[in-house]
Amino acid sequence: MENLRRIRRHIRVIREVRHITRAMKLVAAAKLRSAQERAQAARPFARKISEVLADLASMMPDPPHPILKGRPVRHVGLVVIASDRGLCGRYNQDILDLAMQQAQQMGGPEKLVIMAMGRVARDFFRARGFNVRVAHVRLSRRPTFAWAERIANEIMDFYNQGVVDRVYLVYSQFVTTTRQEPRVFQLIPAVPPAMASGGSSLPASGPGASGLKLWKRAIEPSAEAVLNRLVDRYMQAVVYRALLEAEASERGARLTAMTAATDNATELIERLSTLYNRQRQAVITREISEVVAGAEAVH
């Protein structure tokens, strides 16, 4: 009987856990749709501003903005975007593993300046003795452009002050609900994807070359002034997109994890219920046999 009581308690506890995981699954599903739409809506703007920045920079043999120029690397900044909470599968672990790989490639904790976004990233790097200069929490609840602007300004201030000479962004890109891809993006020196691929959205020669020259002359007040303003907006757009991608990835990872936890709890309850019924039937059968044996002994 004691064994049956223990199984009943176990089933009751698992049912309570399943209520929690099912509720978290429903909340994650409701928030995922909004986060996914925001992340997808930010992609075209980030892509287009990268193309325009690459076009402007290609017009100038020596771009005037310091963010576009490289310099000898003494310290590397690592902006790591993780979550504030757990219960989202391997989402945080994959990001931190990639960040540690990047840290080892950059020369270890002595050369790194960590900018942690999320409580998990902050606690992880502090526990390992890294130089955590900036730590922001509660960003994954609902990132705003104001937060992205603040973070981008902090990064550029560190670069202008000589605290860091190169900056990498480590975050998770949302692909599908069940798939998130951790990635490393070079933020400073700013190398837009169009420049990194060696291309530009405007032709440098051929039929479109004259159009490029006319477009260059039509820039007001000047290409340098527009480029300086565009670099700031580019940094903000990249950081904002990374925050939105991270939010959607976290929601998707949590939905997947809570779905798996709910299914596992249901399966475990079924197995324990079967075990409980078998043991209970065995107890009943044994008691009936004892009653019958006692009755036969009396007669």
CATH class: Alpha Beta
So, the CATH homologous superfamily?
ATP synthase, F1 complex, gamma subunit
The sequence of SSEs as H and E is HEHEHEHEEHHH
Low-confidence stretches: 196-216
N- to C-terminal separation? Answer: 30 Å
CATH architecture label: 3-Layer(aba) Sandwich
Strand order of the largest sheet: 3-2-1-4-5
Percent range for helical residues?
A: 55-70%
How many domains? The number is 1
Q: Note the main sheet.
A: 5 strands, mixed
> What is the overall shape?
elongated
How many distinct helices? 7
Number of strands: 5
- Give the DSSP E fraction (strand runs of 2 or more residues): 5-15%
What structural class do you assign from the helix and strand content? alpha/beta
What's a concise summary of this model?
This protein has 299 residues and is α/β, with parallel strands linked by helices. The protein contains 7 helices and 5 strands.
Account of the protein in words:
It is a single chain. It contains 7 helices and 5 strands; from the N terminus they run αβαβαβαββααα. With 299 residues, the protein is an alpha/beta fold. It has one domain: Pyruvate Kinase, Chain: A, domain 1. A 5-stranded mixed sheet has the order 3-2-1-4-5, sandwiched between helices. Strand 1, helix 2 and strand 2 form a beta-alpha-beta unit. About 7% of the residues have low confidence.
